[in-house]
């Protein structure tokens, strides 16, 4: 009973606790939203800043902050300008009535200038700053003249300094106001914006000069608190910058605060350097700086007060939520938080892009399925309907006016229908010629026999044309479906490639760097993108080696030993100066390589051959060899064969499967022109990882594989490209071995010898008699033998020879004593 009661009561208590926790979190979130709404959206923060800036003075008599702040608010947030003005006037009133009136009349004069001349958008910053400068000059000089009834050079200089500072501060505050009035700022801050916001905050804190609690200066506490915040958020550079700027503005406001600049700058530097220690580390940096600079600046008399001020700033800093400081860090370039934010943004963009590409892939796949859906169930019904329409047309032209219509179609419908159908089938099978037996039988049955037979023969032509057209439409639909499916597959692979991230390989990077550095090579950076077997991808920064080839001779062999597979230099970007860094990419070596040799000749020894060939690595670890023979000879045949190979290469490079690529090329060729210009194609695609070869032969002659003393023939039968839009491509697969020699040739070579009856036997015998394995020599010898045997060059001749070899590394592996680890 107790066990049951405990099992029942425990979840209830847990639910209550979770509900209470959720309620507290909701209350805190609601409070934050309310505070943001009151202070940011309604502009209360601008009024508070205006109050402090109205109190701020430089050299105890200059007040350039007030009008500059109002002008910036007026330009950026005109609806909040009255609140800012109220805060400024109230702040100046706490200093003196004279300062308050001067500020008020300066604002009035500024608004008058603004009313007289509305600045254009492209020059509004300059015009507003000029209005601020003129307003302060006019009001301040008028004030001096009214009080002293005279103007001296000193008064003019001080007015000029105040107006000049106000002009500069206006430009600075214009950049800072948007940062205080926008709730969410997604983009990172520029350096100018960071400095501007620091100047604004330091200027605001200048308004607290003179405030104290138990002999502790409020401006000292707030300034050190500000340095702590930015030291943790931005690091040493930002922390020291905040300290220098804040201390400089304080020293301008009060000469007695000059040593504060050294204290704040040193505190920001130490705190930023100890940023990894979080709040405690930054606080320790401020305390150490206070002890050192405090003793140096004011001696041991005031060190206690200075230390108390520091401890109070540290206390405020410790109770500040870390999440708030983290939000500041996200906007400062160079910080880890900013980098993570940018990576998250880039990841989001990447995912959105991949999703869109995947959606397009789904669209193409749906279109492919739609085109591929051919209703086979209705084929029989369609054939019957077409036959009915066919006989209806014949009947309308022959039997409609016949007096025996009623007897033939009403009483003997089946006999008449089957007879006409038989005539149609007989004409179709015998190419429009009807057997005499069928003619005599139909003459006995029908009195208009010649007319009916002639009409059926005529209508049969239209019937067959319609059937052919329908078949072509179905074939075209199937071809389009295959092409769309190929595009969909490529886009789907592309979407998956986009979503592939660089995997974290910190441990492996450190192990590789340590192993190579222990060997004596001072590499500076290692980035591993993939350690997948057969797909290693590593980037490395290597000092300039003066062309000694250290990457190929030393680093690649060491990586081969560490990773347990052959790694080679894929690309190398050498430094342009002796002390620079070379950027090197290492990748897995392919298990096989292909060495090729080509020999060709034009008909009659001409310069332009109708044959074209290509040998290229098409990516995805595959190597393609292709020969195309254009119809006939000369420039037109050369153009057709070249265009065929160009189109094929582009399709293959895009990743489309070979059969679909060939069908697509054929479709383009057949639709591009009405001229009877056709091309043959002989294609071999070799996988460099397992040496498997796929042969696709389009009306091409056989190819041969020489394996020792054995010669293997590879052949397939297909129509030439460009004749019809749809044709089946026979694919022949053959697994090659290291040492195999592949010989592909055009018909000019295979059928070249004029006095040879069995071309295949002749070619095989010549291949067996070869004493060399060099691909180029083999191609040259075959071409030379054909020309010598025939006596002249009767047709375009092309022979391509490829030798399959194991990929033997140029340099042996170098043993490295390190732990081998893969992802």
Short structural summary:
The chain is about 60% helix and about 15% strand. The chain is α+β, with helices and mostly antiparallel strands and about 800 residues long. A five-stranded antiparallel β-sheet has the order 7-16-15-12-13. It has a five-stranded antiparallel β-sheet with strand order 8-9-10-11-14, with helices on one face. Strands 3-4-6-5 form a four-stranded antiparallel β-sheet.
Description:
The chain is of the alpha+beta class. A hairpin with a 4-residue loop joins strand 10 (679-687) and strand 11 (692-698). The longest helix is centred in the middle third of the chain and has 50 residues, at 449-498.
Computed over alpha carbons, the radius of gyration is 45 Å
Extract low-pLDDT stretches: 1-18, 818-823
The best one-word shape is: elongated
- Physical arrangement of strands within the biggest beta sheet: 7-16-15-12-13
The rounded distance between the terminal residues' Cα atoms is 53 Å
| Main structural class | alpha+beta
Major β-sheet, in short? 5 strands, antiparallel
Number of strands: 16
Helix content: 55-70%
How many distinct helices? 27
The average pLDDT score comes to 76
Report the sheet-strand fraction: 5-15%
Pfam families: SpoIIE, SpoIIE_N
GO molecular function, one term: protein serine/threonine phosphatase activity
Domain PPM-type phosphatase: 578-802, 593-804
InterPro entries: Bact_Sigma-Reg, PPM-type-like_dom_sf, PPM-type_phosphatase-like_dom, SpoII_E, SpoIIE_N
């Amino acid at each position: 009973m107790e066990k049951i009661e405990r099992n029942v009561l425990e979840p209830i208590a847990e639910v209550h606790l979770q509900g209470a926790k959720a309620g507290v979190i909701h209350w805190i979130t609601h409070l934050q939203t309310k505070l943001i709404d009151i202070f940011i959206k309604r502009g209360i923060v601008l009024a508070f800043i205006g109050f402090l800036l109205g109190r701020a003075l430089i050299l105890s008599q200059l007040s350039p902050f007030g009008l500059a702040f109002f002008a910036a608010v007026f330009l950026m947030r005109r609806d909040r300008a009255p609140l800012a003005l109220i805060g400024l006037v109230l702040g100046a009133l706490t200093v003196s009535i004279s300062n308050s009136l001067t500020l008020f009349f300066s604002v009035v004069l500024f608004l008058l200038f603004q009313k007289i001349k509305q600045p254009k958008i492209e020059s509004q910053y300059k015009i507003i700053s000029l209005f601020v400068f003129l307003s302060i000059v006019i009001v301040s000089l008028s004030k001096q003249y009214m009080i002293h009834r005279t103007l001296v050079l000193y008064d003019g200089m001080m007015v000029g300094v105040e107006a000049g500072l106000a002009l500069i501060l206006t430009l600075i505050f214009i950049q800072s106001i948007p940062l205080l009035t926008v709730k969410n700022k997604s983009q990172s801050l520029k350096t100018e914006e960071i400095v501007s916001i620091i100047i604004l905050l330091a200027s605001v804190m200048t308004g607290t000069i003179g405030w104290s609690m138990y002999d502790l200066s409020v401006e000292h506490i707030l300034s050190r608190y500000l340095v702590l915040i930015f030291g943790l958020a931005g690091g040493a550079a930002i922390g020291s910058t905040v300290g220098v700027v804040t201390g400089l503005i304080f020293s301008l406001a009060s000469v007695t605060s000059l040593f504060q600049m050294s204290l704040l700058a040193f505190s920001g530097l130490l705190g930023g350097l100890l940023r990894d220690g979080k709040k405690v580390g930054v606080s320790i940096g401020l305390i150490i700086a206070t002890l050192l600079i405090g003793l140096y600046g004011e001696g041991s008399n005031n060190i206690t007060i200075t230390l108390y001020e520091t401890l109070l700033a540290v206390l405020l800093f410790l109770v500040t939520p870390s999440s708030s400081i983290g939000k500041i860090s996200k906007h400062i370039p160079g910080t880890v938080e900013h980098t993570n934010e940018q990576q998250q943004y880039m990841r989001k963009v990447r995912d959105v892009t991949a999703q869109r590409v995947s959606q397009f892939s789904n669209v193409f796949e749906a279109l492919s399925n739609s085109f591929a859906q051919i209703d086979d169930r209705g084929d029989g019904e369609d054939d019957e309907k077409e036959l009915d329409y066919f006989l209806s047309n014949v009947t309308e032209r022959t039997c409609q006016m016949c007096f025996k219509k009623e007897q033939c179609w009403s009483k003997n419908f089946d006999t008449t229908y089957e007879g006409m159908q038989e005539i149609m089938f007989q004409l179709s099978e015998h190419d429009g010629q009807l057997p005499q037996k069928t003619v005599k039988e139909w003459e006995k049955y029908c009195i208009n026999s010649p007319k009916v037979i002639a009409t059926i023969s005529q209508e049969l032509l239209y019937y067959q044309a319609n059937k052919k057209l329908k078949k072509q439409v179905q074939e075209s639909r199937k071809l389009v479906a295959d092409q769309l499916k190929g595009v969909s597959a490529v886009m789907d692979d592309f979407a998956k490639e986009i979503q592939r991230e660089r995997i974290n390989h910190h441990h492996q990077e450190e192990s590789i760097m340590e192993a190579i550095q222990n060997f004596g090579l001072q590499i500076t950076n290692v980035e591993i993108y993939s350690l997948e077997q057969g797909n290693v991808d590593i980037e490395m920064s290597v000092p300039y080696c003066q062309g000694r080839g250290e990457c190929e001779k030393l680093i690649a062999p060491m990586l081969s030993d560490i990773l347990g597979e052959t790694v080679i230099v894929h690309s190398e970007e050498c430094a342009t100066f002796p002390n620079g860094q070379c950027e090197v990419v290492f990748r897995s070596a392919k298990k096989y390589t292909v060495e090729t040799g080509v020999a060709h000749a034009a008909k009659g020894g001409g310069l332009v051959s109708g044959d074209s060939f290509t040998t290229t690595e098409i990516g995805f670890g595959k190597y393609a060899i292709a020969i195309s023979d254009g119809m006939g000879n000369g420039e037109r045949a050369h153009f057709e064969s070249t265009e065929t190979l160009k189109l094929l290469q582009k399709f293959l490079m895009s990743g489309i499967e070979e059969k679909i690529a060939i069908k697509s090329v054929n479709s383009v060729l057949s639709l591009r022109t009405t001229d009877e210009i056709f091309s043959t194609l002989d294609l071999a695609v070799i996988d460099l990882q397992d040496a498997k070869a796929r042969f696709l032969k389009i009306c091409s002659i056989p190819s041969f594989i020489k394996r020792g003393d054995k010669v293997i023939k590879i052949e397939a039968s297909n129509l030439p490209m460009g004749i019809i839009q749809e044709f089946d491509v026979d694919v022949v697969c053959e697994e090659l071995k290291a040492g195999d020699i592949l010989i592909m040739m055009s018909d000019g070579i295979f059928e070249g010898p004029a006095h040879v009856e069995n071309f295949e036997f002749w070619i095989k015998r010549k291949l067996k008699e070869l004493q060399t394995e060099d691909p180029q020599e083999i191609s040259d010898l075959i071409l030379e033998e054909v020309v010598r045997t025939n006596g002249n060059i009767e047709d375009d001749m092309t022979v391509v020879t490829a030798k399959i070899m194991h990929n033997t590394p140029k340099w042996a592996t170098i043993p490295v004593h390190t732990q081998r680890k893969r992802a």
